[in-house]
């Protein structure tokens, strides 16, 4: 296992955090998330960790040139069957967890749902249609289309955006921290991933809060999700399942909007995939993985090609 010097890890973090603040600076100097350019800067910010990795690899050269893709989990995809199945799990697993989080929120009274009439979703659609005479397609048809689109979005446009973050946090940082043990690597990388979002969280992103509590909420959520994404990374010895899972997670975060009852609201700090209900659902899944012994194995970053025809 390649050991990454602490100086290299610290350099990566300084660059990843610094670039994130640099990209978000126009939002801080302007109207925050209301800035028209916010829709462009947020995806660009997601590539700050990837840029940080590239700079560190080229300047500090902690990994030999021929081993970089293997270390980051980009290539080779071996064993292919494991990578494929873990990628499928990455596409659908986060959706299941967020559905569980939705049920937890309903159970605790944090969200009032309408699973039959989808009245809140229908109310939202009507509010977004200026001409009240314009007929709206059946709400269940639109909801089904939204649900069906989740894995497709996760595997395409969302995966492209998520790759920028995953290359840094799960591709580089998790393996870099593995020298200290699997759990320290997963928990520390998750916390650092959450804190990295500070430039936009303090502007109200995700939780609608502009204080330190919002940052703490995001950090807690990212620790839970970071363990799950990190498990995919280590269990598959590939970056791609984590990329697809991150894409699916982002695509499914809007599920409460589909199932909420009309005339009600919900607090994202409680009833969201990154809020308390998400922590409970995610921790439950982590517990199942623990009981199944899924965190005990320490696979290589990528399996070497087996020798054939040699003694």
From TrEMBL:
<protein>
    <submittedName>
        <fullName>CAAX amino terminal protease family protein</fullName>
    </submittedName>
</protein>
<feature type="domain" description="CAAX prenyl protease 2/Lysostaphin resistance protein A-like">
    <location>
        <begin position="152"/>
        <end position="251"/>
    </location>
</feature>
<dbReference type="GO" id="GO:0080120">
    <property type="term" value="P:CAAX-box protein maturation"/>
</dbReference>
<feature type="transmembrane region" description="Helical">
    <location>
        <begin position="213"/>
        <end position="232"/>
    </location>
</feature>
<feature type="transmembrane region" description="Helical">
    <location>
        <begin position="40"/>
        <end position="63"/>
    </location>
</feature>
<dbReference type="InterPro" id="IPR042150">
    <property type="entry name" value="MmRce1-like"/>
</dbReference>
<dbReference type="GO" id="GO:0004175">
    <property type="term" value="F:endopeptidase activity"/>
</dbReference>
<dbReference type="InterPro" id="IPR003675">
    <property type="entry name" value="Rce1/LyrA-like_dom"/>
</dbReference>
<feature type="transmembrane region" description="Helical">
    <location>
        <begin position="269"/>
        <end position="292"/>
    </location>
</feature>
<dbReference type="GO" id="GO:0006508">
    <property type="term" value="P:proteolysis"/>
</dbReference>
<keyword id="KW-1133">Transmembrane helix</keyword>
<keyword id="KW-0472">Membrane</keyword>
<keyword id="KW-0812">Transmembrane</keyword>
<feature type="transmembrane region" description="Helical">
    <location>
        <begin position="83"/>
        <end position="111"/>
    </location>
</feature>
<feature type="transmembrane region" description="Helical">
    <location>
        <begin position="185"/>
        <end position="207"/>
    </location>
</feature>
<keyword id="KW-0645">Protease</keyword>
<feature type="transmembrane region" description="Helical">
    <location>
        <begin position="139"/>
        <end position="164"/>
    </location>
</feature>
<feature type="transmembrane region" description="Helical">
    <location>
        <begin position="239"/>
        <end position="263"/>
    </location>
</feature>
<dbReference type="Pfam" id="PF02517">
    <property type="entry name" value="Rce1-like"/>
</dbReference>
<keyword id="KW-0378">Hydrolase</keyword>
<feature type="transmembrane region" description="Helical">
    <location>
        <begin position="7"/>
        <end position="28"/>
    </location>
</feature>
């Amino acid at each position: 296992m390649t050991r990454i010097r602490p100086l290299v890890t610290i350099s990566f973090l300084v660059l990843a955090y610094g670039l994130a603040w640099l990209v978000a600076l126009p939002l801080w100097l302007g109207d925050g998330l209301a800035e028209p350019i916010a829709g462009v800067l947020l995806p660009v910010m997601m590539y700050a960790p990837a840029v940080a990795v590239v700079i560190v690899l080229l300047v500090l050269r902690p990994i030999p040139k021929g081993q970089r893709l293997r270390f980051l989990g980009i290539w080779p995809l071996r064993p292919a069957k494991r990578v494929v199945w873990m990628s499928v799990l990455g596409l659908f697993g986060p959706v299941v967890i967020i559905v569980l989080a939705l049920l937890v929120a309903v159970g605790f009274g944090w969200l009032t749902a309408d699973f039959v009439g989808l009245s809140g979703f229908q109310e939202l659609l009507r509010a977004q249609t200026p001409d009240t005479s314009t007929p709206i397609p059946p709400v269940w048809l639109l909801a089904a289309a939204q649900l069906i689109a989740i894995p497709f979005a996760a595997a395409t446009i969302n995966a492209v955006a998520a790759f920028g973050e995953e290359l840094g946090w799960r591709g580089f940082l998790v393996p870099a921290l593995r020298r200290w043990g699997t759990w320290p690597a997963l928990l520390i990388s998750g916390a650092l991933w959450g804190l990295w979002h500070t430039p936009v969280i303090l502007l109200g992103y995700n939780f609608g809060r502009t204080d330190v509590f919002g940052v703490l909420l995001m950090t807690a959520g990212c620790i839970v999700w970071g363990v799950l994404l990190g498990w995919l990374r280590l269990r598959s010895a590939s970056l791609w399942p984590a990329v697809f899972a991150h894409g699916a997670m982002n695509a499914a975060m809007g599920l409460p909007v589909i199932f909420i009852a009309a005339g009600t609201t919900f607090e994202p700090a409680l009833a969201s995939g990154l809020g308390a209900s998400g922590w409970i659902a995610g921790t439950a899944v982590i517990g199942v993985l623990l009981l199944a012994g899924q965190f005990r194995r320490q696979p290589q970053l990528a399996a070497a090609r087996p020798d054939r025809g040699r003694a």
